[in-house]
Amino acid sequence: MAQESGFTIFDKPAAWYIEIAGYLIAGFILGFLIKYAGRLFFLLLLGALLSLWALDYFDIVTIHYTVLKQVLGVSRDMTMAEFLTQTNAWIRGHIIESLSVFFGFVLAWKFA
To answer: What is the DSSP letter of 20?
Structure first.
């Protein structure tokens, strides 16, 4: 193994490289889908959310937001600022994985 400034390069197990490749592929697939079907997906998602909001507003269906937050793994009293802070902390803690997804997304967006 090559030695540079006190640490060994490429001393990660093979599973780590496979995981990074998986993130790269996931980013590529996400970029490809957003590039070619992003507008359709966005309109379908917006229509579904507006429909659910209207159904909840007119009391046709009841959405239990506390149960929804529990299913999504979000604490009951979490605000958007806390959510963004936690997301930022996760990205900083998993910088290699995040960059791998980003590069896969950019590759698909530019070249697919």
So the answer is: H
Give this prediction's pTM: 0.71
Q: Please calculate the CA angle 81-53-68 and round it to the nearest 5 degrees.
A: 55
Reading the block at residue 17, the tokens are 């490289």
E strands of 1-112, at which residues?
3-4, 7-8
Say if CB 62 and CB 56 are below 8 A apart. Answer: yes
Taking alpha carbons only, the member of 96, 89, 111, 91 closest to residue 31 is 111
Locus of tokens 């540079």: 4
Read off the pLDDT of residues 7-56 as tens digits, 9 standing for 90 and up.
Answer: 666 678 889 899 999 999 999 999 999 999 999 999 999 999 999 999 99
